[in-house]
Design a protein that fits this description.
Blueprint: H1 17-27, E1 35-36, H2 37-46, H3 48-51, H4 55-66, E2 72-73, E3 79-80, H5 84-90, H6 96-108, E4 113-115, E5 123-126, E6 132-139, H7 141-145, H8 147-187, H9 202-213, H10 222-264, H11 302-308, H12 323-337, H13 341-351, H14 353-366, H15 373-385, H16 391-408
Antiparallel strand pairs: 1-2, 3-6, 4-6, 5-6
InterPro entries: ArsR-like_HTH, RepABC_RepC, RepC_C, RepC_N, WH-like_DNA-bd_sf, WH_DNA-bd_sf
Protein name: Replication initiation protein RepC
Domain Plasmid replication protein C C-terminal: 301-399
Amino acid sequence: MEPHTSTTPFGRRSLTLAHVANQAIAKTRLPEKVVHKWKVFRAICTAKARIGVSERALAVLDALLSFHPETALTGDALIVFPSNQQLSLRAHGMAPATLRRHLASLVDAGLIVRRDSPNGKRYARKDREGEVEIAFGFDLSPLVVRSEEFEALAEEVSAEARALKLVRERITLCRRDIAKMIATGIEESVPTRQAGQGLANWDEVHTLYRGIVERIPRTAMRDELAPIADELSMLADEVLTLLETHIKSENLSGNESQTERHIQNSNPDSLIELERGFPKKQGATVEANPEPRRMPEGSYPLGMILDACPDIVDYAKGGISNWRDFMATTAVVRPMLGVSPSAWEQAQAAMGEVQAAIAVAAILQKGTAINSAGGYLRELTRKAEAAEFSIGPMLMALIGARKRDKKTA
């Protein structure tokens, strides 16, 4: 007599049409088909979001696969029948209720098929030769049948992850380039208008740049980030064109003035001073490479400040490695934020030069959370004058916000 293959679950568990469909798929398995069980498991792990299973459920599937004695899944002996106690031990001590819930999710996702015995126990009955005649437990046949599907899903997820990484890298590079080119344009007084066209000044360029950056969501898919990357790339090209055009015009005017000087200096009667001397005290030496400014007294470590306010680094020409670089970069950022000279002087008087610069870096980091950077700095100045403000809590809040963003990303 041929043994009857169980179709319905034991006890109060209900049978759904999805379960019937999964069982029908399992029946299409070719006996000669061979699948590497850990290879298909890795594909399922990669595509878990597409398949609809959690990491804890995958831990249970990992434990189930460990009860299959062979690495290859093939033939008819694809039913594993561990007890809940054994399965819980291999699933890192998972609680029985949690184990049952994740087993049900694996069944619902079509990764395994439940083959329950008449009394709900899992076991195998052997014939006289010692071969397994019938087994009751969990059928791994769907893994063999759907192996190509899982591998295709894993490849799609991997390709999407690669594309997302590339677009994020593109955004990062564009942000760095634009910020540093804007800083160079301001320091070198490069005009932003050409033939009466273009933005009025570098503040407007910076406002346009920040408007694009602030639209970047904390967690986003490639389709959302790609248009932003395109906008940043276009803006980077435009800013670079401004700088290159200015360099060409400077070179042209420099060549013309050099020609004029050559004509003027061709007079043999003129006195040419080849080298000018500057009076200096005897024994005085010129310091070619002054040492970097040390950490100001009463301030916080520079590494902590950059951890709390990483956006300030985008505006540094060669990075920020000491306090001199930090102060120079905040001097570039301050007018971009719209902080007036009077507000800056009051902040320096109330907080000190370094603390005021740290406050500017923190205001830049807060971005759209602050409507008016100048007004916000004046409010901090008022609190500092009343001994009601300290820069430390602001830095710790920014560091905590970045850590939370990393966890949710």
